[in-house]
Each structure stands twice: as C-alpha cells, then as structure tokens.
C-alpha cells in the first residue's frame, strides 16, 4: 500500500487521537450484537503518547474508531481477533518486507487494542496503515533520545522520592485504588534503585485516569506482584497530590511525564530496560517481565 506525500497529508491528518481522550468519547459506545466491523471506514486511534518515541524497539498500541467513538466490546460489532499493519515512510514506501499480524487485546481493558511492535533505527516520521483497507493511515514520530524529556529505555531511571505508607510526602491519598489501597507503597523509588534488584514501577491514578486504563494496569501489576514479588521491587505512585486531581505529584514532575499510566522496568543496576505506555493488560505486563528475566 503506497500513498504519495499529498495523499498522506490529506488522509493522515487527524487519523490518530491523542492518548488523553475525552471522557465523552470513551463513553460513546453502546448496543450489543455481532455485526461485522467495516475496516474501510474505521480510523486508527493511536493509544500511545506523542513526543516520547525513540529509535529501537517501539511499541505502538492502536485501537479502532468510528463515528460513535472508540470501538469497544460493547459497540455491537465483532472485534477482529487480529489486524495486519504496514509501516511506511512519508512517501508510502513499506519499511519492512513483511506486514505485521497483531493479535487483539480485549479482556482486561475498556477498549480493545492491538499492540504493534516495530524496530526503527532512525528518527523520523512514519505511517501505520491497515493492510488491504481504505482506512486512513496514522502518522507517528520517532525522536532522538536527547530530545525526549521522560525516562527512555537504555538510560538510568532517574531516582525520585515516591510516597510510602511510612512517609506520604504530602500525597493524600497515596493510592486511589478502591475499595482498598494497593500494597505497592512500602518502598521509596529512590531507595529501591539502590537495592540491587530489578524495579517495576507504575505511575498512574485509578480514580482519576483520563483514559480508564490505570485500574487495569494496576490490577495487572498486582497480579504479577503475587507471582514474582520476590524477584523485583514493585512500586506504584499516584499522579496527583490530592483528591482535587489538579496538582501533579512529584512522581510526574520529577520524570517530566505527560501521560498516564506508564510502567517502568529496570534491571538490577537501575537502568531502564522496558517502558509500557498508556494502555497495557496483564498479558503484556507478564511478557515484559519475562522478557527482562522476571518470571
């Protein structure tokens, strides 16, 4: 599938929605049934944040959108078990010999998504397209790591202080999970990075998450903690300082974050070896841990 630069500018503009989706859009679904979803009229919805992608192994979770909003399991259509993607340059030239067959992730998240993973060596602007359909392609940009403010894979995770049950550091509450706070607030991140173990660190707010993905992310982490809690230090930090949800917590400002949730996995030296952005389920969390020796 090839597009000229002009076709891309016409077709790609607005094809991807930012990760901070409005609640009204997230709620715009309804009905049940099994109608076939017409992939020629859907939009590719980018579920990854902009401005934070760097060369190397890049994870690009995508959802599907239609006139009613993001397609969900309650939208009255059959969710494709897999999608085939092509990654191209701005001139429409495919960058890989084979297309990417990506399985749907459905069970643990409010909207189905397809986590495309590619290896891109150079900064630039690229296009994701659905193979064989007329749906508009979605553009994304890869930047040099020096231009990205948040922690990037391959660099040390900057040590910051996170609230604990012993020292809330002005954060109230230290965990908004309901009905009970999660148990991942025993160790300060700054201290954890000196303990000679991998660190698995989730930044997200279950109560105030704009995309509805923070609670599934935390649930996935808690499940992993039960299985592998002796192999790594698991930490959760909230996004806001209090229930007004208006002031960013030091965990956000310290790492210059612009989105949530985010899962950071370090090795035993504190170097960041994996970062999952915006939307991920328990299977992706477990795969990321296993990939980095935590299993």
- Helix-and-strand structural type: alpha+beta
* CATH T-level fold name of the largest domain: Immunoglobulin-like
Distance between the termini: 40 Å
Q: What about the largest sheet?
A: 4 strands, antiparallel
CATH architecture of the largest domain: Sandwich
CATH homologous superfamily placement of the largest domain = Immunoglobulins
Element-by-element helix/strand order: HHEEEEEEEEEEHEHEHEEH
Question: How are the secondary structure elements laid out?
Answer:
Blueprint: H1 5-12, H2 23-26, E1 35-36, E2 43-46, E3 56-66, E4 69-70, E5 77-78, E6 82-88, E7 100-103, E8 114-120, E9 124-130, E10 138-142, H3 189-192, E11 199-203, H4 214-228, E12 233-237, H5 250-254, E13 262-266, E14 272-277, H6 282-291
Structure, explained:
With about 300 residues, the protein is an alpha+beta fold. It folds into two domains: about 5-145, Immunoglobulins (Immunoglobulin-like, Sandwich); about 190-290, Glutaredoxin (3-Layer(aba) Sandwich), CATH 3.40.30. Helix content is about 15%, strand content about 25%. It contains six helices and 14 strands. The protein has helices at about 5-10, 25, 190, 215-230, 250-255, 280-290, and strands spanning about 35, 45, 55-65, 70, 75-80, 80-90, 100-105, 115-120, 125-130, 140, 200-205, 235, 260-265, 270-275. The strands form four sheets. Strands 2, 3, 4 and 8 form a four-stranded antiparallel β-sheet that branches. Helix 4 (about 215-230) packs across helix 6. Residues about 1-35 have low confidence and may be disordered.
């Amino acid at each position: 599938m090839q597009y000229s630069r002009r076709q891309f500018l016409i077709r790609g503009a607005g094809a991807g929605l930012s990760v901070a989706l409005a609640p009204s859009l997230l709620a715009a679904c309804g009905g049940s049934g099994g109608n076939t979803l017409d992939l020629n009229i859907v939009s590719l919805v980018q579920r990854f944040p902009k401005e934070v992608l760097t060369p190397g192994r890049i994870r690009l979770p995508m959802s599907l959108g239609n006139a009613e909003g993001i397609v969900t399991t309650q939208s009255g259509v059959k969710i494709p078990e897999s999608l085939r993607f092509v990654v191209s340059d701005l001139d429409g030239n495919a960058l890989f010999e084979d297309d990417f067959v990506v399985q749907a992730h459905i069970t643990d998240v409010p909207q189905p998504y397809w986590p495309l993973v590619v290896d891109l060596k150079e900064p630039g602007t690229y296009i994701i397209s659905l193979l064989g359909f007329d749906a508009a392609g979605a553009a994304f940009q890869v930047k040099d790591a020096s231009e990205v403010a948040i922690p990037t894979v391959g660099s040390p995770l900057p040590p910051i202080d996170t609230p604990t049950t012993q020292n809330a550091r002005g954060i109230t509450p230290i965990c908004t999970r309901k009905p009970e706070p999660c148990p991942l607030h025993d160790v300060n991140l700054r201290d954890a990075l000196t303990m000679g173990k991998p660190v698995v660190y989730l930044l997200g707010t279950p109560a105030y998450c704009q995309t509805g993905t923070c609670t599934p992310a935390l649930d996935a982490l808690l499940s992993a903690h039960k299985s592998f809690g002796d192999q790594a230090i698991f930490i959760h930090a909230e996004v806001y300082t209090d229930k007004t949800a208006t002031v960013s917590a030091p965990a956000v400002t310290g790492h210059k974050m612009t989105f949530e949730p985010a899962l950071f996995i370090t090795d035993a030296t504190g170097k960041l070896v994996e970062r999952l952005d915006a939307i991920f389920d328990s299977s992706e969390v477990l795969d990321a841990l296993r990939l980095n020796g935590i299993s």
